[in-house]
Amino acid sequence: MKLSRGYLADFVALFFPELCPACGESLMANEHVICTDCLYHLPQTNFHLQPDNIVARQFWGKIKLEGAYALYFFAKGGRIQNLMHHFKYKGMQKIGNLLGNISGGQLAKSPVFNSVDVIIPVPLHKSRLKERGYNQSACFAEGLAQKLNAVVEVNNLVRAKATETQTHKSRFLRFENMQDVFTINNPESLINKHVLLVDDVITTGATLEACGIELLKIEGLKLSIATIAYAE
């Protein structure tokens, strides 16, 4: 007897269920990427409703921002950490696309973010990109662009040299580690544009600050920042 594609998918799912990367529970037939329970209970920040939120304050006196945003709060051992681990190290690029869509839906309603022209992901060095196979921030950017009606540029801002890991470094050492790391290939294309610079997780903000310093050298450029998660 020939099985229909739907029955075959159900049969495979019975023995090899797709799991939610946040909680590890099996996804139901109508659930996509992340289970409904996690989507409802993941700790959203609502920073798009708070112009002077924690992320924005991290950059006060450092770089001029139009807006700053993170979708979730990050806590060690929590569901967001599980989610980000699968996103960055397990090849689950669709997590970034989904969270980009969710974030874009929120930001499209904001008078600050709905004027974004170009979305630029924080770039990986070519050696790290080759190792991982994709830039997780670019996946997030693609999801955002679908809701914000903006263009994604992945080859304009580039990481010119590899850097040491930022883990366990102080904010000062993180910023020092980022000096002269980023360059812009075609600054003319960004003149008078509102650029949304995006990354996966923000901690001290040193990487985003280093990118922002380079971007803000461009005439008339307005800069905003968005990340998936904020880690205190």
TrEMBL record:
InterPro entries: ComF/GntX_DNA_util-trans, PRTase-like, PRTase_dom. Signal peptide: none annotated. Residues 137-229 form the Phosphoribosyltransferase domain. CDD domains: PRTases_typeI (cd06223). It holds the Pfam family Pribosyltran. SUPFAM superfamilies: PRTase-like. Belongs to the ComF/GntX family. This is ComF family protein. It comes from Mucilaginibacter mallensis.
